[in-house]
Design goal:
10 strands, Rossmann fold, 18% strand, alpha/beta, globular, 314 residues, 5-stranded parallel sheet
């Protein structure tokens, strides 16, 4: 259980150590990937030892929640148990029903943007029977489709992932004791110059991940992502970090070698209104020797952000 602690401190790693490790890029990448796999295995072992029926998984933007949820499910299945992933995004109430912000715009971030009665009923069903019928939400129409998807984790573990997974409004505390394990996914590694001063924070790395994903797969330029980023961070503080103390475990989704990747992607981006912020971010990654996206294994969590091998991320 070495890799999973309730409140692991952030690590401050010297830039010179990263540069040294990057000289043997294949070994460097392999070690980092194996450490993440070990953390996943340790988290599954804890969940099984506690006989949890549900893992409530949350974490900040671009921490890798979605990929982590599915990799946990794969590991549970590999042990001969049923597993399934349920996304809280499928419980959005939809266009015309969202709460309003003070300026009159829809508030997609608050917990009331979810169909809480339906979500609570699904969680109770998972706790009592291991099965529920979860809604299917269409982001194209911004409405529930009216269809459902069977979440079947009988005798195994259901993984419920999303922004509000730790929010008490979901009434997880009303389920039988021991039913749910609260798992927080987040980066725990930051980087320092030779004098010990911090040059790269976890929030910078998550921003680079999100900028890259938005550019490659969501049709958003850097100005769009950088404009939204302060709101994203404020929502994290309000809706995720406010409940972080509910975590039973923290799963580190850092990869030491990834700081060598992001200059290759961020330097290809263009911004007008936020050009200075983009230059500043690029400059932070320039402190590390560059590695191409091709070094990232096909099954890596980082492929969530750079795309499949032989595609945009190769």
């Amino acid at each position: 259980m070495t890799y999973v602690l309730k409140t692991p401190p952030k690590r401050l790693v010297g830039c010179e150590l990263i540069a040294l490790a990057a000289r043997s890029e294949q070994d460097f990448v392999a070690v980092c990937e194996q450490r993440y796999h070990d953390r996943l295995d340790a988290a599954v072992e804890v969940a099984l030892a506690r006989k949890a029926q549900i893992i409530m998984l949350t974490g900040p933007s671009a921490a890798g929640k979605t990929t982590t949820a599915h990799k946990l499910a794969e590991r549970i299945a590999a042990r001969g148990l049923r597993s399934a992933v349920m996304s809280l995004d499928d419980f959005f109430v939809g266009e015309g029903r969202y709460p309003k912000q003070p300026d009159g715009s829809d508030d997609y971030e608050c917990v009331e943007s979810l169909d809480l009665p339906l979500l609570r009923a699904c969680l109770r069903s998972l706790a009592e029977t291991g099965v529920c019928e979860a809604p299917v939400f269409s982001f194209l129409t911004q409405r529930p489709t009216g269809q459902t998807r069977t979440i079947d984790a009988r005798g195994g573990i259901a993984i419920v992932e999303g922004l509000h997974a730790f929010n008490p409004a979901l009434a997880v505390d009303e389920l039988p004791a021991g039913t749910a394990l609260h798992l927080y996914a987040g980066l725990r590694e930051e980087y320092a110059a030779a004098d010990g001063s911090r040059v790269l924070a976890t929030r910078d790395i998550r921003l680079a991940r999100r900028l890259t994903r938005d550019m490659l797969f969501r049709g958003h330029d850097a100005d769009f992502t950088l404009r939204l980023w302060p709101h994203v961070c404020a929502s994290e503080d309000k809706y995720i970090k406010a409940f972080k103390n509910r975590a039973d475990l923290v799963l580190d989704t850092s990869f030491s070698y990834e700081v060598c990747l992001w200059e290759n992607y961020t330097q290809k981006m263009h911004a007008a209104a936020h050009a200075a912020r983009l230059r500043e971010l690029c400059g932070r990654f320039a402190a590390f020797p560059p590695l191409p996206g091709a070094v990232v294994p096909a099954d890596s969590l980082l492929r969530e952000f750079i795309g499949a091998a032989n595609g945009n991320g190769s």
